[in-house]
Write a structure and sequence with these properties.
Layout (H helix, E strand, L loop, with lengths): L2 H5 L12 H17 L1 H7 L4 H9 L18 H14 L1 H20 L2 H14 L3 E4 L7 E5 L3 E8 L10 E8 L5 E7 L5 E3 L16 E9 L6 E2 L2 E2 L8 H30 L16 H33 L6 H28 L16 H10 L5 H14 L10
Helix pairs in contact: 2-5, 5-6, 5-8, 5-9, 6-8, 8-9, 8-10, 8-11, 9-10, 10-11, 10-12
GO biological process, one term: L-leucine catabolic process
InterPro entries: Acyl-CoA_DH_C, Acyl-CoA_Oxase/DH_mid-dom_sf, AcylCo_DH-like_C, AcylCoA_DH/ox_N, AcylCoA_DH/ox_N_sf, AcylCoA_DH/oxidase_NM_dom_sf
Protein name: Alkylation response protein AidB-like acyl-CoA dehydrogenase
């Protein structure tokens, strides 16, 4: 039995948190459990069944679900903080939780009121864990209209959540049209084959391998946002990209903070001053103080910007029908700005901690390299140069980015 499995019962018979601070504290407890054997889990790269069960047992999976259905009733400002807390201990589990929040929220982005009510009630009741097979770099799944149902077929090279998910979000295009259709389907069915081929240097526990979709049937009534086979369009439908980009920002920042805190503990407890230094302790070395101060200041600055942009995003979520194309575009520019800075600072922090921990800190038993590997792996998701370009175009030409799968 792993540490995670043994300590999952910590939350049995305990009341659900009620306030944002209580939920963030709960996330801190989850992170403390994950941190104990994070290095060993990273090396093993095993499917994180126990870790997802911990997220369920702690209640974190229902954080955004309405309180009337038994969920946490919290907003995205709190959700992003929770993602950060979990990612401090384990970047993979922070990513899984963040993607879960986005896919669980997807029904609010594109669904009808009746679909939203049904999905959120079931998700909260059963503590569903969401995955998604919606990688836009691949060709779309092909959807065949058979009358009362639609049938999905195709392949996606990335499907984060994979085998640990209860439900999977699918997206495809109706044959002979340009109409995209989202649907939520059970993950455990013969028509979805997860290929167990995620073998990357970082984010090793995210179950992000490929998936094959074979004749997955969905009732037209469950096609998200469709009424009588016609999609109900609104600007808010396009907010999935800014929302998930902020998920990225926050688990990058969580990983960076985890790296900085882990390194600081190592420096205090194990690092030695340089041979010819006049100082007896590493914590008194001027260059060590300078580097920690530099990295800490940069990280705090980006965290503050991320918090500010999260508040801006929440204003949109609070009144989705009022969102205009201009407001959506200006929000995306702000998201692009914080994504660019978070990427650069997280990479710098996770790389430079070795300058202030020393040669012995590179031992594989310490696992300090996992922070950099995790950030480096996921920050290649989409080129950060395009994010900076969005900001530049807005500043120079007052133009906003058109909604795409990446903007």
């Amino acid at each position: 039995m792993t540490n995670t499995e043994a300590r999952a019962t910590t939350f049995d018979d305990r009341p659900q948190p009620r306030t944002p601070d209580e939920w963030i504290a709960r996330a801190g407890e989850v992170a403390a459990i994950l941190a104990v054997d994070a290095v060993a889990r990273d090396k093993a790269g095993a499917t994180p069944y126990a870790e997802v069960k911990l997220l369920k047992d702690s209640g974190l999976v229902t954080l955004l679900a309405p309180a009337e259905h038994g969920g946490g009733g919290q907003n995205w400002v709190t959700a992003y903080q929770v993602i950060r807390e979990v990612a401090k201990a384990d970047g993979s589990i922070g990513q899984l939780l963040g993607y879960h929040y986005l896919w669980a929220w997807a029904v609010r982005l594109v669904g009808t009121p009746a679909q939203i009510e049904a999905v959120e009630e079931a998700a909260a009741k059963h503590r569903w864990f969401f995955g998604g097979a919606v990688n836009p770099r691949d060709g779309d799944l092909v959807i065949r209209d058979t009358g009362n149902t639609i049938v999905y077929n195709g392949r996606k090279s990335f499907s984060t959540g994979g085998k640990v998910s209860d439900v999977t979000v699918l997206e495809g295009v109706l044959e002979g049209t340009e109409t995209h259709v989202f649907a939520i389907v059970p993950s455990d069915q013969p028509g979805i084959i997860f290929h167990d081929d995620w073998d990357n240097i970082g984010q090793r526990l995210t179950e992000s391998g490929s998936a094959e979709i074979r004749d997955v049937h969905v009732d037209w009534a469950a096609a998200a946002g469709f009424v009588d086979k016609v999609f109900q369009t609104r600007v808010y439908n396009t907010l999935n990209v800014p929302a998930i980009q902020l998920v990225f920002v926050n688990f990058y920042l969580g990983i960076a903070r985890g790296a900085l805190e882990t390194a600081a503990t190592y420096t205090r407890e194990h690092s030695r001053s340089w041979l010819n230094s006049p100082y007896e302790r590493a914590v008194d070395e001027p260059y060590v103080l300078d580097i920690y101060g530099d990295l800490g200041a940069k990280l705090w600055a980006v965290e503050a910007l991320a918090d500010q942009v999260a508040v801006e995003a929440q204003r949109i979520h609070d009144d989705p029908d009022a969102l205009t194309e201009r407001q959506r575009g200006e929000h995306e520019v702000r998201v692009a700005a914080v994504k660019a800075r978070a990427t650069e600072v997280a990479l710098e922090v996770t790389e430079r901690i070795f300058e202030v921990t020393g040669a012995r800190a590179t031992a594989s038993s310490q696992g300090l390299d996992r922070f950099w590997r995790n950030v480096r792996t996921h920050t290649l998701h989409d080129p950060v140069a395009y994010k900076r370009a969005e900001v530049g175009v807005y500043l120079l030409r007052a133009e906003i980015p058109a909604p795409t799968w990446y903007s």
